[in-house]
Design brief:
mainly alpha; 135 residues; 80% helix; 0% strand
Length: 135
Amino acid sequence: MKALYFILIAAGIVSCQNQGKMDIQKAKQATVDSMKVEIEKQRVIDSMQVEMVKIQEAKVETQKEVVVVDQQAAGTTTKNKGWSGAAKGAVIGAGVGAATGAIISKKKGQGAIIGGLAGAGVGAGTGAILDSKKQ
């Protein structure tokens, strides 16, 4: 009976030692795996930074100054097609201002006239500013 107890205790000790070795191996493998994940993350970050540098260089290339020489013959005139920005702004502003003035005012006709004039002025001013920025 004592021999049986002795064998069971010895088996328990041996199995505990093997368990400790297995835990150490698992911890080592987990460390290696986490290092591999971090290395992969850093590789992705580095490749993204390289791409960002390429994009910045491409932007610099496209922003180089371009000189255009207009060689129109003397005596020819160019005709503007369509409305100017100031005219479009005035018409849109007048319509919106008139509608808003009629809705807000108690005297619908007077509110529409005042709103239309104010809207036309603001719209024409805004359109003129946009036209000057385009040129």
